């Protein structure tokens, strides 16, 4: 029998030996912002800031020869650069996460919960700082960027409930025999993130990865890595040990390493269809768990009995907010009957009054698109759709900002196309821009069939004052997130993000109970501690136990 103290000492020595040495890296970089000091306007970076890589709780300057420019989408000036992490850096990040897992998984649940509480407090204290970097790199308005952080913060708050969520089940299955089922972490989890929610999407998984005892290798979008770097700093400040959270950068090479490395046991992906299908198919073939949230085409159906003003206010915000670059943005308005078709004029009036401009300008309602390619693509889709029979009733293509500073920005004003139907490009493709396509149908049943025939299933909304219509809608609509008089029905994180059909690949959704199940595996332990002596020692039984 070795004593507990000797055992602990031996374990500690083993852990120290297995700790990864960061011998390949030469220098560190500190972040440009602090909790109280962050950009409040667009800036000219004489020398663009080099985004660090985060390994073993250190901000490392990459040795890479390949750096990608990050532009301010409102001015198109280069404000920072992000590296294609080298193969040594990727190796070091995964090795750190693998090594840290051995220790982190044995932290008590209460200790991990207290770190999560501290992380929540730090997120609140740094909300404006994170929002500011989102405005600089992504372009959305400051209040919208605050919402980006808030929706991630709510996942972190829900993660603090982990002792309840991880509670084991146990049952006395026979006299003196107990079976207990616990859930255990998987190991290293890789996360690949999109550009449109630089804080929220990393936070859809990071807090749950941590509290469930897993470790993380995160690849933020190469277009907007700044917010994620602040999250890394806050993890360290919250008491997350070295190696538990690592952030790497780049494009395909980084994604391929995350997919292929056998030490990474599960992958969370949010982004477009092409990358998502590739990652899901390759990852699952290699035996990994993958959850992948993909593209969307979200419809809003309006019935003639709807409250007209409530509907008009809702549709403008949901279609044009964040410049339409939300996976839950309303991109198709389905008017049912002639009366609601006439309401589109009022929607257009409302949308025309929205102010397009800098995300730092408190009067702006929507900012620019992420890059010139997205602007060109949106314009091409509008043009092609018009050739296919659509009619433009609000045209945002010629938007020009009053201030010359923004003349090179990727701005597109709210645009509304009527006379759209399946087969028209604006209906068939995800535009990801402030473009609303209007489809008119005669009946509610036709509207439901239209939505159900669409390949995507992220979100859908109905505006009505009829309870029976709402009931019929909720029961018959084939879409994962359903709103009734709510245009963007994203559930809070005590539930899960439940997109379906072509908007999701996998079995278990992000966050909520499904998220925790995705990040853990069950183990059953059956024990027998007899309270009565064995009286039949010399009669071993070869038949199945009877559980009496
Ligand atoms: P994207 O697919 O271009 O990029 C997402 C991530 O995948 C990035 O980190 C990128 O580096 C990587 N990537 C891109 N192309 C790749 C490829 N060919 N192979 C491997 N990796 C690749 O997506 P995006 O433009 O950053 O984000 C917008 C998209 O994300 C939209 O389609 C939007 O609907 C979707 N999105 C979906 C949800 C959801 O919950 N369903 C949420 C947010 C965004």
Automatic annotation (TrEMBL):
It comes from the Eukaryota. It is an enzyme of class 1 (oxidoreductase). Pfam families: Aldedh. PROSITE patterns: ALDEHYDE_DEHYDR_CYS. Its EC number is 1.2.1.27. The keyword Oxidoreductase applies. GO terms for biological process: L-valine catabolic process; thymine catabolic process. Residues 59-525 form the Aldehyde dehydrogenase domain. One of its GO terms (cellular component) is mitochondrion. InterPro entries: Ald_DH/histidinol_DH, Ald_DH_C, Ald_DH_CS_CYS, Ald_DH_N, Aldehyde_DH_dom, MeMal-semiAld_DH. GO terms for molecular function: methylmalonate-semialdehyde dehydrogenase (acylating, NAD) activity. Keywords: NAD, Oxidoreductase. Belongs to the aldehyde dehydrogenase family. This is methylmalonate-semialdehyde dehydrogenase (CoA acylating). The lineage of its organism: Eukaryota, Fungi, Dikarya, Ascomycota, Saccharomycotina.
